[in-house]
Amino acid sequence: METAEENRIALAGIIVEDPAAANEVNRILHDFSQWIVGRMGIPYRSRGVSIISVVLDAPQPVLSSLSGKLGMVDGVSVKTVCSKANK
């Protein structure tokens, strides 16, 4: 049975379609930096978007909070996939 203290490994895929949203995305990611294992950003200039993948090791409520906050930013799409196993 899962408890709040059990962490999951997760991958958040973020697409930033509005360059004006980049500062807010970075601020949110900074707020969750203690949970971030690694991050990779790819500017896809010919399509005018940025793609960011973030690997996290965090409790489920933290993952949900991050995804929710990013999803509320205009011009940003996010999907998160979590490991099945808790560690």
Model description:
The chain is α+β, with helices and mostly antiparallel strands and 87 residues long. Helix content is 25%, strand content 43%. A four-stranded antiparallel β-sheet has the order 2-3-1-4, covered by helices on one side. The longest helix is centred in the C-terminal third of the chain and has 12 residues, at 60-71. It starts with 6 loop residues before the first strand and ends in a 5-residue tail after the last strand. The model has no long low-confidence stretch (mean pLDDT 93).
Quickly list its features.
2 helices; four-stranded antiparallel β-sheet
Short synopsis of the structure:
With about 90 residues, the chain is an alpha+beta fold. The chain has helices spanning about 20-30, 60-70; strands at about 5-15, 35-45, 50-60, 75-80.
Oligomer: single chain
Rg measurement, Å: 13 Å
Helix content: 25-40%
Number of helices: 2
General shape: elongated
Number of strands: 4
Report the mean per-residue pLDDT as an integer. 93
Strands of the widest sheet, in order across it, are 2-3-1-4
- What amount of the residues lies in strands? 35-45%
The helix/strand class is alpha+beta
Q: How would you spell out the order of helices and strands?
A: EHEEHE
Segments where pLDDT lies below 50 for 5+ residues? none
Distance between the termini: 12 Å
Biggest β-sheet strands, sense, barrel: 4 strands, antiparallel
